[in-house]
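INTERNAL AUDIT FORM
Audit reference: QA-55
Scope: verify that the stored structure record matches its stored sequence.
Auditor: D.O.
Record contents follow.
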Amino acid sequence: MKAKHRFILAVIVLGLLMTGPFVVTSLLVWLDMKDAEREMLTGLLLSRLPVGTMMTIFGFVIGVLVLHRLFKQYVEGLLRMAETLRLMLGANRNFRVAAEGPPEVQQLARAANDLAQQRDALMDDVEAQIAKAKASVEEEKNRLAALMSELAQAVVVCNLDGRILLYNNRARLQFKALAQGPTSVSGGALIGLGRSIFSILEKNQVQHAQEVMRQRLSAGKTALANFITTTRGGQLLRVQMVPVLGAPGEGEAAMSGYVLTVENITRSIEQEAHRDQLLHTMTEGSRSALGNIRAAVTNLIDYPDMEPDLRERFLRVIEEEVAKRSHSVDQTMAQFSDSMKTRWPLEDILGIDVIAAAQRRIEDKLKLPIKTEELDDALWVKADSFSLVFALVFLASRLQDHYEPRELRFRLTSEGKLAYLDLIWAGPAMSSETFYTWEMESMQVAGESSPLTLRDVIDRHGGEIWYQREKAAHRAYFRFVLPVATPEVIQDEERARGNGRPEYYDFDLFNFEDQSIDLDRKLSELTYTVFDTETTGLEPSNGDEIIQIGAARIVNNRLLRQEVFDQLVDPECPLKPESIPIHGITEDMVRGQPNIDVVLPAFHEFCEDTVLIAHNAAFDMRFLQLKEERTGIRFSQPVLDTLLLSAVVHPNQESHKLDVILERLGIQIDSRHNALEDALATGEVFIKMIPMLEEKGIVTVRQALEASEKTYFARVKY
């Protein structure tokens, strides 16, 4: 109901209130009166009617005026206040309610103004915080933009779906130059915010690089991937890819995107090809010139008395040919003096990672079972992993189309600085013409294609490939010969061994006292060198030799996996065939390694001033003792044997072999029968045994040596 209607209703109610009681009272009195009394009252009222009517009208008007006043102050005043409050909430936050009207309405207005003031203060604070945060973000964005704008390489940031989140001006210009058709947004051709990077780069290569980064992240290694790709226009791009890690709560290996740095190397590759062609031409052209010069010089030498005209003719030939060759060399130098030598980049990657990627793709695309045999899981190769995996899948596809093998096998071995990656299958013989055809055709697999041929991939790696039969096994294989890489293997191994706190510091050593060998000091207070040897056989007194020494240090009851000694030794004699499967060391591995005369002094220096520890130490020490006269090196420090100590702490156990002790003590190791790995396992065993020895009252080195000598196994001699 509108305010006007409410006011009319209030006036009607006021009129009823003013006239109603009088009319009802007069009617009741009239009905109770007699006729004479009614005539008297009628005459009286008629004579006073004008005055009464005027008083009633006057009273009604006064009431209406009072009611109008109250209505204006309360009803209309509150309605105005509501409108003002809405104004403050919306268009004009600085507007205020006028404190007017009755005291109650004025108090309500002042309360509303106070609330508005508080709201404004809160909003000012929030806006200040927002402005501060926005300024900080803007500053960071400006810094990033300035940094990226100065980069000489094109930089693109993408999310996991390949959508471009950020790119610099260099990327825009570079991809604009690659465009063959109309340009897209921002004039960047192929590139723009929210666009897919897969319109520029091959999706399979990007996804393969993501998989490589995830594998390296999960292994705790530096996540980095490199690959070479071609655009639709035939341009050659070198791409480096690093991950953008997610929030800490998502895990260390959680990727939220990746950063690409892209370089167009087409021109440099073309320049190198041109240079090689020119050098080849210059070399071929030099042959005839050198032949002419040689013939002229020979004639001049053989016929010193020739006629002057003829001599002059030969000299002119020499002068002309030399001038031509000089001009050719000068021309070549002028063309390529400012060019840089560009090589196809190869990344260091574990060979087993290449095989794992190829196995997944073959099983997924070709539905062909894959098995492995004789894999060197520590072998690193230099490779463009994408093209190499694609080549392996291509060969598997060709084999499936032509020979329908039931399964394929991978083998990975090495010899010297070369790695051998074999793709093996059982089936009929293949002709050399067929293999040559496969080698030279463009590779296509299950709808995917590559502009490279198999020969291109091999040449890219500086390697070789050949086909070979294993007649005895009725099978054949393709052998990829690849260069062996020597990446940060040591650091990766150290990281893998470094369980728990880092081994680069140990604050407990602040309280560690003198480390000199004292047989009466506690076992937990001394420094140890735990070591192991691999040998050509088990008879040191009958000519067997050391072929590997591995050792690690124990300090303050901690096995320092970074402080290791690991060295192959040339035994200067043939290895026994029966020992090779045990330690896995071959003739080729020890050939060219330093001999014992060089290795033993280095090992002696490594373990100087420490107590030696070994498992079945009598065997290893016998080899060292037999070399004392030849090398002049003597190991005079105390030696503890974990085999004997095991017999001390567990005298009722039937076996004290290292494998059994490891299982008994719950020690997990990666591998065995490698000198360093066996030494590390022995060190873990000794650390576990120290509290067990203390429980038996064996606290010092002297007590441990005395207890060891009393065991049955101490009688064994070598």
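Auditor finding: record pair retrieved intact. The chain has five domains: 3-89, 151-265, 269-336, 347-483, 509-715.
Action required: none
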